[in-house]
Amino acid sequence: MDLKLIRAGLKDGELLWKMQVEAFSDMYNKYHDTDTSPAAEPLSKILDRLKQPFTYYYFIQADGDIVGAVRVIDAKRPDKAKKISPIFVMPPYRQKGIALKAIRKAEDIHGNSNWELETVLQETGNCRLYEKAGYRKIEKTIVINDKMTLVSYKKD
């Protein structure tokens, strides 16, 4: 599979937002996490992020098709960890190793060390993905509601 990350710009904001809402809607319906779910974010939040000098949105392209996206937060400072927030693959393209390849491509671009991310503890597939990519779970957790807890990961 030929996988590329293609940098997104302000003109791509609405498409990114629509894809994000669709990609996270199942989890939103499962956990009802209105304050934290990417599916509940307004378009304006994506547009604001696209204007940030430390935010890099990339479309994930697999074999010529746009199949997802990843946001990298990178202040380009050694004292500040880089962060993936969020990454998603559209439903028809899941379970094909795309997210893992996209993480590795993002690390190729932004450096292989000093990364952080958060994911839903109850989503064991997501946890396995990050562990397979070399991230380790740290003790920091945030209880969102009675169904959902966020867990933090690091990659040194």
List keywords for this structure.
156 residues; alpha+beta; seven-stranded mixed sheet
Summarize the structure in short:
This protein has 156 residues and is an alpha+beta fold. Helices cover 31% and strands 35% of the residues.
Topology of helices and strands:
Layout: E1 3-7, H1 13-31, H2 43-50, E2 55-62, E3 65-73, E4 82-89, H3 98-110, E5 115-120, H4 124-132, E6 136-145, E7 148-155
Parallel strand pairs: 4-5
Antiparallel strand pairs: 1-2, 2-3, 3-4, 5-7, 6-7
The percent range for helix content is 25-40%
SSE pattern, N- to C-terminal: EHHEEEHEHEE
Major pleated sheet: 7 strands, mixed
Briefly note the structural class of the backbone: alpha+beta
CATH architecture of the domain at 3-111: 3-Layer(aba) Sandwich
**Briefly, what CATH class of the domain at 3-111?**
Alpha Beta
Number of helices: 4
**What oligomeric state is this?**
single chain
**Would you identify the regions where 5 or more consecutive residues have pLDDT less than 50?**
none
Rg computed from alpha carbons, rounded to a whole number of angstroms: 15 Å
Mean model confidence by pLDDT:
97
Shape: globular
What is the CATH H-level superfamily of the domain at 3-111? Gcn5-related N-acetyltransferase (GNAT)
Strand order of the largest sheet: 1-2-3-4-5-7-6
Notes on the structure:
A seven-stranded mixed β-sheet has the order 1-2-3-4-5-7-6, with helices on both faces. The two termini are 28 Å apart. Helices cover 31% and strands 35% of the residues. It is of the alpha+beta class. The model has no long low-confidence stretch (mean pLDDT 97). The chain has helices at 13-31, 43-50, 98-110, 124-132; strands at 3-7, 55-62, 65-73, 82-89, 115-120, 136-145, 148-155. It has a domain at 3-111: Gcn5-related N-acetyltransferase (GNAT) (Aminopeptidase, 3-Layer(aba) Sandwich). It is globular, with a radius of gyration of 15 Å.
